[in-house]
């Protein structure tokens, strides 16, 4: 089996990453009752003995070490992780913090250290398949250093797939310069990622409050199992919840579901390298809108077909989307359904047939569905579904971003903070803006084909 | 004589595993020594402990499916796979034909061919090779094509049959039409015959005839294995002089794939019903054959929903399009079970079923076995080289061509060394196949 490395950058990246590791441990503990270090565990964890020597697959679990690289420019978050209950799964050498250095400095010893740590992490893998980068678009470190690390990964490991989870700021974000950060980062994401899974804080907030509302004032007979909500960390190592934890658990579940088919058995496996292959028809258009279901399960355990079908419908409703946009009124380029639990191919066929008529697909990909069946469900559920949609609807969100960027940029507001940094020039700003505009235009071109009756391309003719 | 099976990719491994299981339990059911011996020799060898070991090589670029198949077989208690007859890597071909064909295939050529050679050397006499795979993924399709090519070079005179699983038309791998197209275009140059099962059709049979509510891949594979088994299990043929035929692949190819432009074979079997009902049902040969004949003519793979209006044209009618009937180049009819020698098969000799170039005596071949197959008291299967696959093939090429017109996903193939030119070549050769089958009337 293959291995993946998580690179978590900045406050957001590290806090989300931390929830991922906690829930990943919980998931494997739940599946792997014998305490054996198996292939599935090996995909995200190393097993080492007390003298930090690697122990192979098949033996007992001794000390699990996350295949992670933690990067931040402040010490706060990373130190907190290290002192918390999860501290043990990280090696001090995997943590990289440096307060002093600006994000564009090449060749500094901090940069060298990052390169070095990534190489070491890669050496621990016998078949490295994927890097998962987690960062925010709003903050300085996540967006700036995070995307620099991304292009470094492309240079150093061109064969290894790069899947980025990017947390987009909500409209009233605490970081004033977040539009600058986001647009500058977008250019890097468009050019250097294989796939980007955008997640929006506002959507996470909405989901959390909806679940809280339901579990507090639930109707009689519709009791929600507390430990099965997607925001719950129950059964994990961490104790008291911190402010972002509920939101971050959603993103952590997203990552667990994306990787489940690569870790566990199934009757239709979906490996990580199949994601980009199926969902990215043109290299720059690789933004995949995620939706997760169920967000909670009801306490009674029997699942009629109706409720299974509901799960598929929910995946196409706005309140299960982790990114604010309107896919049904835009154009699907491709869509993946990644299913976990006791679900069969007939359930997939039935639901695809049912949903298809209401979902507009681009003319040359009318049957643009990719499906995966993994037999191991998430903890506390009997089944789950993650949908990833490559849809032109992301365009509208990118236009909003461009607008708030231009608002600041027109006044040259806060620009000096950036231009003081070595290597940053005003040109970077206009280039980033152009890159975003041309991305929006590419989506526009595809959108323009929507609703038009496209005739089949004239076939090759054969001399008889 | 023995058949060596090469099972490739997730689908190929899962389907082939089921085939061995079906064939093994069918052979061991009841007291039919000659039949059992013939079947066993065909598909299995004996380990030093005397246990049955499948004459198979398992190949996948990821380990999970192979591990699963090996374990399942070992736990069956009836047969197993050879301990060292498998090859897997850690990372799949990612649904990319180019990755399988240009990267994984060449990289592991030696190992894979050595495994096959070892299995071939364990046969007293080799009937031929059967490569089983799906066309939609990356490993079965890409590595499968590359391996078939290598085997063709090593065994230029042996029969090579490819068994292909075609994907659900409404998508499950988004680039499935590209992968299918590239696979078919290449295999057409290499393989002696290509036997196809469409997942859509098999799924419909599971749902409508077997009444399965939650259809799993395991159900689908059982049905494919049933149909394949009914073709490949021992039978008496025209050339077999009263004993069981020795070379199922060779005779199959000779019966059906006599012309290099026509290699696509489809299968229909009757009856197919829920296993609980089999014991309570009786069948008559005339009724079975009447249905099967109409399934062939109307090109429906199930006895339900047959178009009874479709009929072969009478000698005076020149155009077939009016009667809506399928046209065959050749058919192979296989009957198994009770009173098989009394079955009247004249309906399949009707010249109206065939193209005028061949006499119906040449176009129809008949295999029989008095041994009931897989619990059915009587069963009939027709393997047909006809226009049956024209429509799905045409859809596949049309969809791939539309996608190609926008150049969508092409960069993923170029990355591994398949150019637009290569795509065009494959499109051209499949348009040729489509044109040939369209002219069959
Ligand atoms: N009938 C049947 N079809 C299957 C089965 N498993 C997969 N498929 C079909 O096979 C196609 C996908 O190809 P796979 O066999 O999974 O791919 P692969 O050859 O392993 O190649 P990669 O995974 O891309 O490296 C789809 O059309 C599936 O519907 C099975 O057990 N039975
Ligand atoms: N979902 C989520 N968003 C966060 C978290 N921490 C910070 N953010 C968001 O990230 C952005 C700020 O970036 P941050 O990660 O703090 O800055 P950095 O450390 O400089 O990368 C803002 O949009 C915050 O709302 C978190 O733990 N979870
Ligand atoms: Mg697959
Ligand atoms: Mg596979």
Give an overview in words.
Chain B: It comes from Pleuronectes platessa. Chain B: GO terms for molecular function: GTP binding; structural constituent of cytoskeleton. Chain B: This is Tubulin delta chain. Chain B: One of its GO terms (biological process) is cell projection organization. The complex is a heterodimer of chains A (464) and B (441). With 464 residues, chain A is α/β, with parallel strands linked by helices. Chain A has helices at residues 10-31, 39-42, 76-83, 109-123, 140-156, 178-192, 201-216, 245-263, 273-279, 305-314, 345-355, 394-410, 415-419, 426-448; strands at residues 3-9, 45-48, 63-66, 68-72, 95-97, 128-136, 161-168, 195-200, 288-293, 332-341, 369-374, 383-391. Chain A contains 14 helices and 12 strands. In chain A, helix 6 (178-192) links the parallel strand 7 and strand 8 (195-200). Chain B folds into 3 domains: 2-266, Tubulin/FtsZ, GTPase domain (Rossmann fold); 268-388, Tubulin/FtsZ, C-terminal domain (60s Ribosomal Protein L30, Chain: A, 2-Layer Sandwich); 391-438, no CATH class. Chain B is 44% helix and 18% strand. Chain B is built from 16 helices and 13 strands. In chain B, helix 7 (176-190) packs across helix 14 and helix 7 (176-190) packs across helix 16. The chains are: A alpha/beta (464), B alpha/beta (441). At the A-B interface, helix 9, helix 11 and strand 11 of A face helix 3, helix 8, helix 9, helix 14 and helix 16 of B. The structure holds guanosine-5'-triphosphate, guanosine-5'-diphosphate and magnesium ion (MG) (2 copies). Residues 9-11, 14-15, 60-61, 92-95, 134, 136-140, 165, 167, 172-173, 199, 217, 220-221, 224 of chain B line the site of guanosine-5'-triphosphate (GTP).
